[in-house]
């Protein structure tokens, strides 16, 4: 019975979303922004949507962290090496303003060098550019939705 109920519900939702454009009830970008801006989730551009799967290929091998200890030490805790940037900091868009500060500790020239030793071919400069771009679109943390 529960399964039947689930199928009916899914069917109803499918029908509703298929008919929405015909009935003028389709929710658009404006609705998305109104719904998700308080959660600090800006919409992706079509280019960003296509690029996203290529940005998350880090396999945590740690090779890019080699030789980055001095830079990390000088960063007063802002930068913990490129692996952290590729594997963690660049995964949560609401926190991209903090991630952008971490990326500022390492230049694109250095990221280009590190890309050459990455076995997963993570496009580190593209990840950095994505984080910077989305960070610039974030509302201030004071507007963050609570609860
Ligand atoms: S070298 Fe590449 S795969 Fe290895 S930790 Fe760095 S980004 Fe990840």
Explain what you see.
The chain is mainly alpha-helical and 147 residues long. It has a domain at 40-139: Fumarate Reductase Iron-sulfur Protein, Chain B, domain 2, CATH 1.10.1060. 54% of the residues lie in helices and 0% in strands. The protein contains 8 helices and no strands. Helix 6 (96-103) crosses helix 8 (124-137). The radius of gyration is 20 Å and the shape is elongated. The chain starts with a helix and ends in a 10-residue tail after the last helix. The mean pLDDT is 91. The structure holds iron/sulfur cluster. Iron/sulfur cluster binds next to helix 5.
Topology:
Elements lengths: L1 H22 L5 H8 L9 H6 L17 H6 L7 H6 L8 H8 L4 H10 L6 H14 L10
The structure holds iron/sulfur cluster.
The geometry reads as elongated
What percentage of amino acids are in beta strands?
under 5%
What's the N-to-C terminus distance? 34 Å
Helix content: 40-55%
Remind me, CATH topology of the domain at 40-139? Answer: Fumarate Reductase Iron-sulfur Protein, Chain B, domain 2
What is the level 1 CATH name of the domain at 40-139? Answer: Mainly Alpha
Order of helices and strands: HHHHHHHH
Average pLDDT for all residues: 91
Which ions, cofactors or small ligands are bound in this entry? iron/sulfur cluster
C-alpha Rg (nearest Å): 20 Å
Tell me how many strands there are: 0
**Major sheet:** none
């Amino acid at each position: 019975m529960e399964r039947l109920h689930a199928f009916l519900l899914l069917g109803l939702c499918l029908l509703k979303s298929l008919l929405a454009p015909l009935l003028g009830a389709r929710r658009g970008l404006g609705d998305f922004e109104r719904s998700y801006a308080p959660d600090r989730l800006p919409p992706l551009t079509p280019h960003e949507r296509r690029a996203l799967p290529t940005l998350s290929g880090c396999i945590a091998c740690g090779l890019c962290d080699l030789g980055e200890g001095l830079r990390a030490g000088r960063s007063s805790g802002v930068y913990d090496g490129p692996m952290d940037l590729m594997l963690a900091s660049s995964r949560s868009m609401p926190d991209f303003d903090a991630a952008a500060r971490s990326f500022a500790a390492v230049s694109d020239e250095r990221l280009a060098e590190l890309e050459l030793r990455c076995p997963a071919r993570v496009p580190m400069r593209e990840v950095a550019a994505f984080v910077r771009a989305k960070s610039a679109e974030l509302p201030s943390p004071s507007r963050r939705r609570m609860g």
